[in-house]
Specification:
- This protein is α/β, with parallel strands linked by helices.
- 60% of the residues lie in helices and 11% in strands.
- The protein contains 14 helices and 9 strands.
């Protein structure tokens, strides 16, 4: 009976905090629903592949002129899952630099370059010429988990077409070109960008609970007597938290370097990315705090944006996401509203692809804009809920 009394006591107390109970119950089901939206309930992730076709048509043994490069592109497009959805989203381009830029921005997964002699080599192989060969180049960021799948699928289509055209003779060789220094990264080094972003994301809890502690303890009521504005209070709190974030970023880098991590780009650029990312995360923390009345509420509510940041931004693993629209040749996706999305992309560019400050200006700009937006929303909510 006493156990039953305890259960009733817990139920009565929980009724006073139904908001936290509801959030706890819907957290995992919400992410199941979101992933279902991403995948449509099926394993139909398609991979963006770019193709530069330099091939020149040649006359095959059937007496017909063929551009084998175009046939290979068609073979890649015809690779499908069981439900008929394409495995590769193939686009033809003409500029290698634009293709490599898309790989760095992870707007594409693979770049294939077909040489001018491709058709002629296959035609010679059909006629029995002595060991004619040509080389097709595959370019990609070897640290991108999607690259391996896309490359294998493209190689399957290419090799299958070449064998069908020439018999069993292997007339085509493959040259894999690693983007930047992606081929030389150790497994440990590949984890560091995500771990650094995780360290910054943890500032979300620090920011939300610090402000919520002032609300719960009554300190905010005493501060209101001084005619303190929401902007002043949150700006001062953000400045303190920014100092903590800087220390956290520097400490994480120091430990990584001590254990053998190497950045092939300027380390100070990566630190700048980490600091600006922390400001946007702190801005989200201010929003969480504005929705909370106690520290425990802030902790539970903070888990929602934390889950989005970790599982939907690419910080933990890549997420398939189609673009909403394009601005200045830049694909804009819905997950671009999550600061870690830009942080992961920028850190990968600096650490692996040897990109400098100019190469991450887009990401830094996006992070700065998001910081201003989230902080402004936090100030408005805080003023409305706690200072009026």
């Amino acid at each position: 009976m006493r156990i039953w009394s305890v259960i009733r006591k817990c139920a009565r107390e929980q009724k006073r905090d139904l908001w936290v109970l509801g959030l706890s119950l819907v957290f995992a089901p919400l992410f199941v629903f979101i992933y279902w939206l991403f995948t449509g309930g099926n394993a139909t992730t398609s991979y963006a592949a770019l193709v530069i076709n330099h091939d020149e048509a040649a006359r095959f043994s059937d007496g017909v002129m063929h551009n084998a490069g175009e046939d290979v592109i068609l073979a890649m497009q015809e690779l499908t899952f069981k439900d008929g959805s394409p495995i590769l989203r193939v686009s033809s381009i003409s500029d290698r630099d634009l293709g490599e830029t898309a790989l760095r921005d992870r707007d594409a997964t693979l770049l294939v370059i077909i040489p001018p002699s491709f058709s002629q080599t296959l035609a010679n192989a059909q006629s029995g010429a002595a060991e004619p060969t040509t080389q097709v180049e595959f370019i990609g960021d070897l640290t991108n988990p999607y690259y391996t799948v896309a490359a294998v699928m493209a190689m399957t289509a290419l090799d299958g077409y070449a064998v069908d055209a020439t018999g069993e003779y292997r007339a085509v060789s493959l040259l894999e070109t690693a983007l930047g220094d992606s081929a030389a990264r150790t497994e440990f080094e590949m984890y560091i960008p995500g771990l650094l972003v995780l360290a910054v994301i943890m500032m979300l809890f620090q920011a939300a609970m610090l402000v919520a502690r002032d609300i719960e303890s009554g300190s905010l009521q005493r501060l209101k007597i001084t005619r303190l504005t929401a902007f002043e209070y949150l700006s001062g709190t953000t400045a303190w938290l920014a100092l903590i974030a800087i220390a956290e970023v520097l400490l994480t880098f120091a430990v990584a370097v001590a254990f053998g991590f190497r950045s092939h780009g300027a380390l100070w650029v990566a630190i700048l990315v980490g600091v600006i990312t922390s400001l946007s995360i702190i801005g989200v923390g201010m929003i969480v705090a504005s929705l909370s009345k106690t520290v425990s509420q802030a902790f539970v509510i903070a888990n929602f944006p934390f889950g989005f940041f970790m599982f939907l931004s690419g910080a933990a693993f890549p997420i398939p996401m189609n673009r909403l629209f394009t601005i200045a040749e830049r694909d804009i996706k819905i997950i671009d509203v999550l600061p870690p999305t830009h942080a992961v992309a920028a850190l990968n560019k600096v650490f692996t692809l040897e990109v400098g400050l100019s190469g991450v200006l887009y990401e830094l700009t996006a992070l700065s804009v998001l910081s201003v937006i989230y902080f402004s929303v936090g100030v408005w909510l805080f003023r409305k809920r706690h200072l009026n």
